[in-house]
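MATE family efflux transporter
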Amino acid sequence: MAWPNLVVMLLQASTGLIETYWVGRLGSDALAGMALVFPPFMLMQMLSVGAMGGGVSSAIARALGAGRRDDADRLAFHGVVLLGAIGLVFSVLMLAFGRPFYRLLGADGGALEAALAYSNVVFAGNVLLWVMNALASAMRGTGDMVVPALVTCFGVALLIPLSPLLIYGYGPLPGFGVAGAGMAIVAFNALGCAYLAWRLASGRAVVRPTRVPIETRFFADIFKVGALASLTSIQTNLIFIVVTALSGKIAGAPALAGYGVGARLEYLLIPLSFGFGAPLVSLVGTHVGAGEIERAKRIAFTGAVFAFAAAETIGLAAAAFPAAWLGIFGSDPAMIEAGSAYLRIAGPAYGFFAFGMALYFASQGAGRLGKPLAVTVVRTAIAIGGAALAAHMGAPLWTMFAAVTLAILVYGSAMGWVTWRADWSRAAAASRGRP
């Protein structure tokens, strides 16, 4: 069940690299602007796919495992309504307050204008991203990982030529600069949303979103997992945002760009973790719904070990050859130096990050996220507190990166412990009733 998501992860990673490569050719301001938008943009993906989307998948998987087929159809409809509304709220907020938000992160001049040009386009179409991922999450909740993966493969095939075409233009088509990269993303989200909606409505999936009167109990079933998971996603992105801002204030735009490009590799571990984690939501949720707690735990740790091995391989390679990654996006010595310092320190800990993320997805499937959320709070406190302390004391840039790395190590280790000790039997009992 994991391989379609892993293929998607590799394709998404390639697309992200290509997009950043083309934007990087526009200059350092465009690259810095994109680095500033990347955390809130990734937050939208993490919330709509892994957090609230995971809540949809978990609720549907537990309903199917407990034999409540009609409720699964209703949950799919409620998931689309709920996620669409959330996506609309974020669109309004970012379009209204994007400029002061990016100023708060230290952007000014050309970097600020580039950030706004990209951000305004991406967030104008944000609701399409949320609805598409609600539909995809409904399918993942049934165990169907292939169709959502194929939709993403289509998106990659579309973005690879469309992104540079819209950035630079060709013939009579004008180039839109960094905004063109955002236009290509919105176009893919629109097409993916239309296809998934058609497939579910046509009865080609296990669940079929049924338009029914809104019932708060279905929202509550999604929210009890998705809301807590959203706090985890927000905290993860808050670390990147704060450290990005502190890097820029301490060492200037080159350091901001260097950390942003280095951290982009860490962001790419999130879809890798999702590759293993999405099946865990469905498998763990179904087994918990059926009362098979011991087997659910074995599934969770098996997936986490695979995620650890894949991410640790990437992290060690990045630590050994940081310039091979950073040199793709620019040649500024200060940028290369800052990014290399980050990857050498944080890269060897990447396996712990993916291990913890995979177990977080497993906890979503079980419908128990209280203790995993507490672990994430500890990680956030260590990373942000350590980075802020280093900045306040005027310590070298690498000390901020060391604080982030310590937080990752604590996160992975503690997540393993709380998952091992978790009592999922109450979730099993609840799943056999109504939400």
